[in-house]
Amino acid sequence: MFLLLFSFSTVQAQETPTVEDNYYTPELTPPPSLNKAVTRRQLEKQRDLMKVLSRWYIGVDAFGRSDISALENNYRYLFKSMNSSTLDFSFAAQVGWVFREQLAIEGGYARSQIHNTAILNTTNKGGFRFANEGNAFFLRGKFLLEFENMGLRRPGIWLGGGFWAVPNNGGERDPKAYIIYHYDNRGNSDTTYVSSKTTIGTDWTYGVEFTAEYNFKVNEWSDMGVFLRRHWGMGNAITTELTYADNKKVLETGYIRSDGTGWQFGISYRFMTGIRRGEVKKGKSSGEIITPYTSLSQP
Known about the structure:
Elements: H1 2-15, H2 19-23, H3 32-48, E1 50-72, E2 83-99, E3 103-111, E4 115-119, E5 127-131, E6 135-144, E7 156-166, E8 172-173, E9 177-183, E10 189-200, E11 205-219, E12 222-234, E13 238-246, E14 249-258, E15 262-280
Antiparallel strand pairs: 1-2, 1-14, 1-15, 2-3, 3-6, 4-5, 6-7, 7-11, 8-10, 9-10, 10-13, 11-12, 12-15, 13-14
């Protein structure tokens, strides 16, 4: 009888699971999608620690440009100033190369007109305003105004300088003329006739620039920035000859000349076409990978 009861209890123990049996379940694993997402984040974090040896980019600029015209002979103070400024909006496209996130070289094409402007000192706000074809090519170099964490992409101020070249194609602009009436205290009138003849240069003109930019990373493959540039021109790109006549009698001539001197301000967007990475930031292990998932099971 005793042997029969012992055999029955043994069979029951084998067939009925206990709390301890349920505790030792197989090790849990996360869903494949979660595992992949966490891994991607960790790899991106590790990638950001790797220094950038060099990168190539293409970019576009949208900017406003203020250029200054110089007036020679302001006859009878007909014009408001001996120097007049014109504000215009335009664009540029470039290709560039960045070395170790410290030095950059870029060059390209800009649609940027050079203006001849003189505003009359009268109530009708008339004046002369002419422009060249607006084609220009540039090459500039820049360096990051920071010397820590070299090789890592980070926001910062870039300073630099460059050269401009303007291919003038010659030709003339349509003439323009004004008649200005002068009155004395007795009501007597006098007239001054001003006419213009505008020519575009036939030779290339050149210029230099100073640039200051603040750039920041948008994502792994793009940057944006804001910039301010100062231009100094060399050689006349466009010249306007003015003829002054009082009461139909030609008296003097004057000139409006522009060489591209002025300011430029705007925004840049750059898309990376290639990034070459090298060593990891000092103090970090190049083989360090954080495990994305820790087992939930216990011994």
